[in-house]
Amino acid sequence: MTSTQPTQRLARIGVDVGGTFTDLVLYDPSRQLALTGKLLTTPEDPSIAIINGIKRILSEAGLQPSDLHSVVHGTTLVTNTIIERTGAVVGLITTSGFRDTIEIGRETRYDLYDLFLEMPPVIVPRARRLEVAERVTSEGDVLVDLDEDAVARAARRLVEDSKAEALAISFLHSYRSDRHEQRAAKIVRALYPSLPLSLSSQVAPEIREFERTTTTCANAYVQPLMHRYLDKLEAELVELGFAGRLHIMLSSGGITTVREAKAFPIRLIESGPAAGAMAASFISRIAGLDRVISFDMGGTTAKICLIEDGQPDHKFDFEAGRVRRFQKGSGLPLKVSVVDMIEIGAGGGSLARVDPSSGLLKVGPRSAGSVPGPVCYGRGGDQPTVTDADLVLGRLDPAYFLGGELELDVDLVRSAFDGKISTAINLDVDEAALGVQRIVDETMAAATRMHLAEKGKDPRKYTLIAFGGAGPVHAFNLARLLKVEKMVVPLGAGVASALGFLVAPPATDMVRTMVSRLDAVDWTAINALYADMKAEGVSLLCEAGAIEEQITFKATAEMRHRGQGFEIPVALPSLVLSDEHLDAIRETFFMSYRAQFGRILEDSPIEVLNWRLACSAAGTDISIGQGHAVADATLEGARRGTRKVKFEGHGWLDCAVYNRYMLPAGCKFSGPALVEERESTCVIGPDSVVSVDSSRNLIINLWFVN
């Protein structure tokens, strides 16, 4: 699928595979048409739902697969593989004396007082970690030549005796000089040409041996699986008649090529959640909002991300497969660029239960997923979920779930609540369902407060943008708990993550390590680093469909006071630097340092470790509302009637029910109300005013929160 981009294939499709639903958005710029789709995920083979969803949305648009320019896809396959430990058999070849780096780690305990502390299992057990003689200094000079025969022996032992399906090579200080890793790779490829191979100097070319080696091993661990998955998906798309390009979402929020995704699949570990953040960024820009809390609640998890000036926060490290889901330090540390967000085990499918030891009601983090799904789906689930509670409380219309495609069984849900929850805690079904909702909303609010507090931010100064299938159902309560005065719910909120795939730009992040005091930097060497990174970024983005003249670059450096153990990112004024920029760089460092720590150390020497370059092309502007525009729409025409909904502190209230697609721009109404669309329902509580803006976003003002 490396064809050129013919002008007649203009339509694009974004596909987001979640734990419960697979979401799709189709955009055809020739007709200014946007259509959405949602169907249950097929966990045994995610491509089944993808292909079925593409067929369906193309049929609704009156298009053929040959009319498609591209498909943009994100997947949770990488993170699920690491969490479930279902990846490949991996072997590691490393420098003599450093065999146990990934097991020793940083010699820290994530819980000092737990005598039975469980550490995250390593990706590569000791028997499959082999050493070879070689040594490069931290300046990139060769201290000990590579023992090429030892590399060949190690490769044969790992592949033929240990049955390794992929190899990782991580040598000491290869971030400064990759000559030994490159030579070792040539030896291995000569022996096993088709064997997946990951080099640390390519996967994570930056300082810190433990994290770099762990990231390289994790990349090798998921590489064979991602090769098979993407090859199968490409083949099925070709069989469907698709002749355009398949693009993949990165964890950083950019899109890349299939080739890059196969080579560095670890960079996709947060690709699905990143798409939601990119959608919220896009919505914040068109709505003119500069401070936003992105709230994406799906069937399995809720994701919270801070967005300022139309851009999400980023970070360059990530923990995967935590032994304790919310305990920092209990997972595998990875050096990858990701959108900075928190994920909470709180989704529509989160299971509610009564803890037998304490007798307390608990919700999540386990989810019913799509199989068997919530009780109300009637697909075999017998444990009540958050979605079941929403149905009991009147928030969902049992006859209009997924636009009426999936009828929900209220009686089955009430029976499950009665048998599993209500009797055990001595509450009627309605109060038990309200308790489930209260717990999940308070859990999300507490996590959001903590996330913002760590950044020194006050949620009351932000606007909440809510999306995901369950997001608009719970956003009003979340906003109330956070004391947020305004929230925005976009049209098509239930599939907004899929929209994120289409508005995200082709983008990539690169890094090189060169440690130096700021006042002694070799600017010639640094400028050469940036020139190399720029050329590499331009080549990759052009392959992903970007126009070279439209690519923009953002240079940053990770700096610290000398002797400190951690760095902060500092924006650089140019890609070509000299001593003339020293004062500006120093002042920017002090400004960032003060913002994070509340003070500066003016007399302490400043040290630079990593030099980063973010490359990005222009994204696509889309109006998702145009696919559902209704001529002569009026507020009264949009009203479907009323439904009773139970609100905490108010009891059962009569709520006006509106058809989302019939609400015209400029109309206003008051809560309590329900606004229904095919993929989600927006629940609007009392003491609020709703307006519809020109982009058909719901703007909900909560005037009672203060």
Report on the architecture of this protein.
Helices cover 32% and strands 26% of the residues. The protein is of the alpha+beta class. Among the domains are: 11-81 and 228-268, 2-Layer Sandwich (Nucleotidyltransferase, domain 5); 87-218; 350-438, no CATH class; 512-610, no CATH class. Strands 13, 14, 15, 20, 23, 24, 31, 34 and 35 form a nine-stranded mixed β-sheet that branches. A hairpin with a 4-residue loop joins strand 13 and strand 14 (302-308). Helix 4 packs across helix 5, helix 9 crosses helix 14 and helix 11 (410-425) packs across helix 12 (429-454). The radius of gyration is 26 Å and the shape is globular.
Query: Largest sheet at a glance?
Result: 9 strands, mixed
Global geometry: globular
Would you tell me the overall average pLDDT? 91
Overall number of strands: 35
How many helix segments?
A: 17
Radius of gyration: 26 Å
Q: What structural class do you assign from the helix and strand content?
A: alpha+beta
> How helical, in percent, are the residues?
25-40%
- End-to-end distance, in Å? 55 Å
Low-confidence stretches: 1-9
* Approximate strand percentage: 25-35%
SSE blueprint:
Layout lengths: L10 E7 L3 E8 L4 E8 L5 H16 L6 E7 L2 H8 L5 E6 L5 H4 L24 E4 L2 E2 L5 E3 L3 H14 L4 E5 L8 H13 L5 E3 H4 L5 H32 L4 E5 L5 E3 H6 L7 H16 L4 E7 L4 E7 L2 E2 L1 E2 L2 E3 L11 E3 L3 E2 L1 E4 L5 E5 L6 E7 L18 H7 L17 H16 L3 H26 L8 E5 L3 H12 L3 E4 L6 H8 L3 E11 L5 H21 L8 E10 L6 E4 L10 H16 L8 E11 L18 H4 E9 L3 E9 L8 E3 L2 E4 L4 E4 L3 E5 L5 E5 L4
Parallel strand pairs: 1-4, 4-11, 5-6, 5-9, 9-10, 13-23, 23-24, 30-32
Antiparallel strand pairs: 1-2, 2-3, 7-8, 11-12, 13-14, 14-15, 14-20, 16-19, 17-18, 21-22, 24-35, 25-28, 26-27, 26-28, 29-30, 31-34, 32-33, 34-35
Helix pairs in contact: 2-7, 4-5, 9-14, 10-12, 11-12, 12-13
